[in-house]
Design goal:
six-stranded mixed beta sheet; about 40% helix; about 20% strand
């Protein structure tokens, strides 16, 4: 979570000069900038590969592999629970309530379900990626969030009839006026790679100037993928690799203005007529 004892333990560790590896996306989304500043002051590493997209090395890809690129946009499926529910509704013709109960029974849903189905978990991950990609101070509060709890089986069936599937997507794009960040259910073409994601699989697509479009696909949660990400951070620290938490020193990070206008979108409406 975002409060104590998590926050206090992290702050005490950094002040004591200890390198820190965490998978706590909620803490980073709310306090990431201040923690990064504290890590710089104590000259320790703050690493968090496991906090976003499980075993997919997206944090390292943005900070290292794509460091020479000017990133324009990030989008993708960042929450496996929502992806599982939407996929199961389509494949089994089950209602949202039925599939949600099944997901809870299987242990896929957080203790507070709104973190998953309300889009909050995906938004926390998007806030972290936006900060790295656009060299901005992390700002979770500026993200427009809509979950999947209003999606019905009728919507799933209508989307399929039109050649689409419904996915919860997180999107972040740097515009001339500022930073556009949103998490919401979207219609994606059945022929697209993102539409074929099943279960807890995550996919993040990055649009940049030199490379163009790159996509990262893999398990977004689970013991093995999370452990893999944590150990990769530990190995980097053991080898003496150290860099600012979000790729750039906090003093050079920008405060981007929230943007909601000037973004082209298409909308789906379902009407009940009597």
């Amino acid at each position: 979570g975002t409060g104590n004892p998590s926050k206090a333990l992290v702050e005490q560790s950094i002040r004591a000069g200890k390198h820190l590896v965490t998978a706590n996306k909620a803490l980073l989304a709310e306090h990431g900038h201040s923690l990064a500043k504290a890590a710089e002051k104590s000259k320790v590493a703050l690493r968090f590969e496991a906090a976003v997209a499980g075993g997919i090395p997206i944090v390292k890809a943005l900070m290292e592999g794509l460091a020479s690129n000017n990133i324009k946009k990030i989008s993708g499926v960042m929450n496996g629970t929502c992806n599982y529910i939407l996929s199961q509704m389509e494949s089994s013709n089950g209602s949202y309530e039925h599939i949600f109960a099944k997901a809870q029974k299987l242990g896929y849903v957080e203790a507070d379900p709104q973190l998953d189905v309300g889009g909050i978990d995906a938004a926390q991950k998007l806030a972290i990626l936006s900060s790295i990609a656009f060299h901005s101070e992390i700002n979770f509060e500026d993200i427009e969030i809509e979950g999947i709890d209003q999606i019905s089986l009728a919507d799933i069936q209508n989307a399929k009839a039109m050649g689409y599937r419904i996915k919860l997507l997180g999107t972040s794009e740097l515009k001339n006026q500022g930073l556009y960040q949103v998490v919401a259910p979207c219609l994606v073409p059945e022929t697209s790679a993102v539409s074929k994601l099943e279960g807890g699989t995550n996919m993040i697509t990055v649009d940049s100037d030199f490379v163009g479009q790159t996509s990262f696909i893999g398990p977004g949660a689970g013991g093995g993928p999370t452990a893999s990400a944590i150990i990769s951070d530990l190995i980097d620290i053991a080898q003496g690799k150290q860099m600012p938490a979000f790729g750039f020193k906090t003093q050079s990070m920008k405060k981007h203005k929230k943007v909601t206008l000037g973004v082209k979108c298409c909308y789906y409406l379902r009407l009940s007529l009597v």
